[in-house]
Design a protein that fits this description.
CATH architecture of the largest domain: Alpha-Beta Barrel
Bound molecules: zinc ion
Number of domains: 2
Order of helices and strands: EEEEEEHEHEHEHEHEHEHHHHHEEE
Structural class: alpha/beta
Low-confidence stretches: none
CATH superfamily of the largest domain: Metal-dependent hydrolases
Distance between the termini: 20 Å
Number of strands: 15
CATH class of the largest domain: Alpha Beta
Mean pLDDT: 96
Shape: globular
Helix content: 25-40%
Largest sheet: 8 strands, mixed
Length: about 350
């Protein structure tokens, strides 16, 4: 049975339209602005609410089904899990319905002694011999990883050696998989750039990315998931300044590097910090605006831009043929980004879940 939202204003990726009709059937958007001819159609007048494509959080961590439901409660219908284990639990989450869907890094590559070595990961997360990297990449992809994650630290801080980073990129690219590097230190960004990773996540809080480094990242085609939400949380640690991360963010923006909104939200037993899922993607958009983004650019960082860069052409934009993953909010977020928090309804594959 077809379902139609009428009296709905649509975010097109450029503007908010006048009230129109959005039609859905079989989990996809079938038409926009067309007359309803199906006599059995279900029609909902949403009273002028604004429909956004379901939001995409490009950096978080999943643990249980409830996490995926919580994300959907906040209109986040696609997630990118930046490390979780064991693979059996992560893969069981892939079979859940009526909640957010996700891509996952699975088990990351980490160094022998960095802060991430304390997180109880499987032993094979740590690789110190570059010769063992190709088998490690193959194992992860066989276990379901959608891309490869490596946790880089400042030189001398116990992270993977630069040769490991180089080998991870070569092995992953050989298999057609992208590489995301955790880079919360300036030296880690240099290691990531040298290795040729596709995406850097977090920003240095010790020394900012300057215009010269940003230009080299742009030349290399590197993407950024800055996780300003996490940078705010980490700024309580002595020597780590939010202002440094914000300065790096402005340099990346000036260099034209695509930025994907991500939060590093996590609700896993025994982690040092608990960062609320769903809620914080709205906070991340506000932090981007605070850093100089327009509300439009912030919204694109959680819709079109990640859909394009994660290879998800069926989402990120409301158009016929796209998944009917929709966030209905009360009023125009282009005038005030905090309005994305005013969730009036959420659809996943055309089914109302909120
Ligand atoms: Zn993370």
């Amino acid at each position: 049975m077809s379902e139609h939202l009428c009296n709905v204003r649509l975010f097109t990726g450029r503007e908010i339209t006048a009230p129109t009709t959005l039609s859905m059937d079989g989990g996809v958007i079938t038409a926009i602005g067309e007359r309803i001819t199906d006599p059995a159609a279900r029609i909902t007048d949403v009273g002028g609410a604004v429909a956004l494509p379901g939001l995409i959080d490009s950096h978080l961590h999943l643990y249980r089904r409830r996490d995926l439901e919580t994300l959907a409660d906040f209109g986040v219908t696609t997630a990118v899990d930046m490390a979780s284990w064991p693979p059996e639990r992560t893969n069981a989450l892939r079979r859940q319905r009526h909640c957010a869907t996700f891509l996952s890094a699975g088990v990351p590559f980490i160094g022998p002694a960095g802060p991430h070595a304390k997180f109880d990961m499987p032993a094979y997360a740590t690789v110190t011999d570059p010769a063992e990297v190709p088998a490690g990449v193959e194992r992860r992809l066989a276990d379901g990883s959608d891309f490869i994650k490596i946790v880089l630290e400042a030189p001398g801080d116990g992270g993977p050696a630069p040769e490991i980073a180089d080998a991870v990129v070569v092995a992953a690219h050989e298999k057609g998989a992208r590489v995301v590097a955790h880079t919360a230190a300036h030296g880690a960004v240099e290691t990531a750039l040298r290795a040729g990773v596709d995406v850097i996540t977090h920003l240095p809080m010790d020394e900012p990315v300057d215009a010269e480094l940003a230009a080299r990242l742009a030349d290399a085609g590197t993407l950024s998931i800055p996780t300003m939400t996490m940078m705010k949380v980490m700024s309580v640690v002595p020597g780590r300044r939010y202002a440094t991360a914000a300065e790096s963010l402005r340099a990346l923006r000036a260099a034209g590097i695509p930025v994907l909104a991500g939060t590093d939200s996590i609700n896993v037993p025994r982690t040092p910090v608990n960062i609320r899922l769903g809620h914080n993607l709205h906070h991340e958009l506000e932090l981007l605006v605070e850093a100089g983004w327009s509300p439009l650019e912030a919204l694109l960082a959680a819709t079109e831009v990640p859909a394009e860069h994660w290879g998800l052409p069926d989402r990120g934009r409301l158009r016929p043929g796209a998944r009917a993953d929709i966030l209905l909010c009360g009023d125009d977020p282009l005038a005030d980004i905090s309005r994305t928090r005013d969730v009036r309804g959420v659809y996943v594959l055309g089914e109302r879940v909120v």
